[in-house]
Amino acid sequence: MGIDGAAVGRGSASTAGAARAAPAASAATAEITLEEAFHGTTRLVEVDGKRLEITIPKGADTGTRIRLSGRGPGGGDLFVTVRIRPDRRFTRRAADLERDLPLTLEEALLGADVPVTTLKGRVVLTIPAGTQTGRTFRLTGQGMPRFRADGTGDLYVRARIVIPTDLSDEARATARAFLDLVHQPDPR
Question: pLDDT confidence of 49, banded at 50, 70, 90?
Answer without folding.
Answer: confident
